[in-house]
Design goal:
132 residues; Rossmann fold; five-stranded parallel sheet; 6 helices; 5 strands
């Protein structure tokens, strides 16, 4: 990783966001970690920065089991955003679900890099952040 990385965590659990933020913040080159507790709020946030490419998250960690707007509903709306944003960000589903249906459904979205199982601590964060 040779640049500062902006992270967006989308999870309805404040505890999961707190833990994941703590894990990610230990990595070098993290410039910002933003947390959102709903897919709807995250979409509004992204729409608000659409003209500010420097504020774009490089990586989005997305929970799928959330009330009001689940992760797949978020992805449906996210794909409607400007290509400048959707081509820039890498999305990783981060879920406690080990259901292969959820993992397979995530593969239907070209913007999703892969499905990660919670907790984030089980994964090599530096490797994930360095992926292209």
């Amino acid at each position: 990783m040779n640049k500062n990385v902006n992270i967006l965590l989308i999870d309805d659990s404040d505890v999961d966001n707190f833990i994941n933020k703590a894990i990610i913040s230990k990595e070098d080159n993290i410039s910002q970690i933003t947390t959102m507790t709903s897919g709807h709020d995250a979409l509004e946030y992204l729409k608000g920065i659409i003209d500010n490419t420097e504020a774009y998250p490089d990586v989005i960690f997305l929970d799928i089991k959330m009330p009001r707007m689940n992760g797949f509903e978020f992805l449906d709306e996210y794909q409607k955003l400007a290509d400048t944003l959707t081509d820039y960000c890498r999305i990783y589903i981060l879920s406690s679900s080990i259901d292969s249906i959820d993992s397979d459904k995530g593969k239907d979205y070209p913007v999703v890099k892969r499905h990660l199982t919670k907790p984030l601590a089980h994964h090599q964060i530096g490797d994930i952040l360095a992926e292209d």
